[in-house]
């Protein structure tokens, strides 16, 4: 049975209908990018792929090597005191400066999680350089929230991608609070809060985006005691819940892996920031989701469907979250197997290039790049690693023996009634198929569902982002 969810008309988003002012901004920001961007940092690309192929390396070693790889490249690409980082790749639709903010906001949570896990302020890079992670995070916030600094993150507007990035930035501040926030002066703290509080007055798209201002507001309350939480946003998110652990991404959205790396990732962090907040719903819905979702994971990837293929390294995020929240359907050994195998499978086949996850499943694939995705958007792929580092000691992740995944034990076939999907697994081929019986099949034809090769001109036109592309 399809659950009807009250919907609202889709708003007119500025970057989907650019005017002369937006084109002028794009032109200016592209000129700045050409002046400040660095060369592609591919020094360790082959080495990290080989490292993840080697089965003798422990899961901890893999996470450490990945953090070293990401941190070293981030230091290379950063500009203006770690407030922005210009990575190479296909641009998104909301200006290259916003792309450069993503290069910071989506990397800093990893640095914060590593600091908390290692209980050290320094990290030795693959180049043998010492990186002071709390200092890098601190500089980013001091400069990014200073209206007089060149790296200022700016005034937020309605439907602004920076609202999304504010969520990851706030999470960074909360995770690293003992290393960063507690060391700041009262003036700098207020400067940071002033920038974050802009989200309280911005309109957003009616889907998973409700999590972004909510996360910021939860962090503000945790750090300052000031309660501006818009509880109606959380209630709206729960209206998207259809059962069996699954959410629609908006009233008219389809079902995809945003349940894993979007909805449950965000719910997990709300539960960490405020453990008393709607505990029963969060744990019960996550447990129900993981009961079936574990069957999606294979040692050789996932049955991919939906948007944002470049986030594929994060597919195990809800499994790790479920173990930490003591949801019984998934054991720590199963979550470990899912996490480690997904990292090994994709990274060993080239999913990391130039210091970042590629815009594709393996290498860069223009057919899989969504119009909202920029060069650093794929750092959402780190979300499973961030959870793993944050909770590893509590769940005994590094020491626990891996347990086989369902596809490694038996054939299976079952239904997920709430999303009208059939899940079929064949042990002999290690293949899992997910067949949906509504939405995609009703609204798309075989022609509209195919992957088409896009030229650079086609993608730039679709993105309304007149960028000068260079090899």
Automatic annotation (TrEMBL):
It holds the Pfam family DUF2264. InterPro entries: DUF2264_N, UCP014753. Residues 64-404 form the DUF2264 domain. This is Uncharacterized protein conserved in bacteria. It comes from Proteus mirabilis. The lineage of its organism: Bacteria, Pseudomonadati, Pseudomonadota, Gammaproteobacteria, Enterobacterales.
């Amino acid at each position: 049975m399809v659950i009807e969810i009250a919907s609202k008309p889709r708003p007119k988003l500025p970057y989907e209908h650019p005017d002369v002012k937006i084109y002028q901004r794009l032109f200016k920001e592209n000129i700045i990018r050409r002046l400040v961007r660095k060369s592609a940092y591919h020094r360790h690309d082959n080495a990290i792929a080989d490292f993840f192929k080697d089965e003798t390396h422990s899961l901890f070693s893999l996470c450490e090597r990945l953090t070293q790889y990401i941190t070293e490249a981030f230091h290379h690409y950063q500009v203006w005191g770690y407030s922005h980082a210009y990575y190479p790749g296909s641009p998104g639709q909301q200006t290259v400066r916003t792309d450069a903010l993503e290069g910071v906001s989506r990397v800093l949570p990893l640095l914060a999680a590593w600091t908390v896990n290692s209980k050290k302020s320094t990290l030795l890079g693959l180049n043998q350089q010492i990186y002071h992670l709390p200092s890098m995070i601190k500089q980013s916030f001091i400069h990014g929230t200073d209206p007089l600094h060149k790296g200022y993150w700016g005034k937020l507007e309605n439907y602004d991608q920076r609202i999304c990035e504010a969520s990851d930035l706030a999470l960074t501040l909360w995770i690293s609070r003992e290393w960063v926030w507690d060391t700041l002066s009262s003036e700098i703290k207020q400067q940071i809060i002033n920038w974050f509080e802009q989200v309280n007055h911005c309109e957003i798209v009616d889907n998973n985006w409700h999590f972004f201002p909510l996360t910021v507001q939860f962090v503000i309350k945790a750090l300052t005691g000031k309660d501006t939480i818009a509880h109606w946003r959380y209630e709206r998110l729960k209206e998207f819940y259809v059962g069996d652990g699954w959410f629609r991404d908006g009233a008219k959205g389809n079902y995809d892996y945003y349940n894993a790396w979007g909805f449950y990732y965000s719910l997990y962090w709300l539960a960490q920031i405020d453990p008393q907040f709607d505990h029963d719903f969060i744990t019960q819905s996550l447990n129900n989701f993981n009961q079936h979702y574990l069957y999606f994971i294979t040692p050789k990837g996932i049955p991919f469907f939906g948007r944002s293929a470049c986030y594929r390294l994060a597919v195990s995020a809800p499994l790790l979250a479920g173990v930490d929240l003591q949801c019984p359907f998934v054991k720590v050994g199963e979550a470990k197997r899912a996490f480690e195998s997904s990292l090994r499978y994709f990274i060993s086949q080239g999913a990391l290039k130039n210091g970042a996850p590629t815009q594709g499943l393996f290498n860069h694939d223009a057919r899989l790049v969504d119009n909202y995705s920029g060069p650093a958007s794929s750092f959402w792929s780190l979300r499973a690693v961030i959870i793993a580092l944050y909770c590893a000691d509590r769940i005994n992740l590094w020491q626990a023996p891996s347990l086989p995944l369902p596809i490694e034990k038996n054939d299976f076939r079952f239904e997920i009634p709430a999303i009208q999907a059939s899940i079929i697994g064949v042990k002999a081929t290690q293949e899992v198929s997910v067949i949906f019986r509504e939405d995609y099949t009703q609204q798309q034809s075989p022609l509209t569902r195919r992957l088409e090769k896009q030229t650079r001109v086609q993608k730039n036109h679709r993105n309304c982002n007149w960028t000068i592309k260079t090899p």
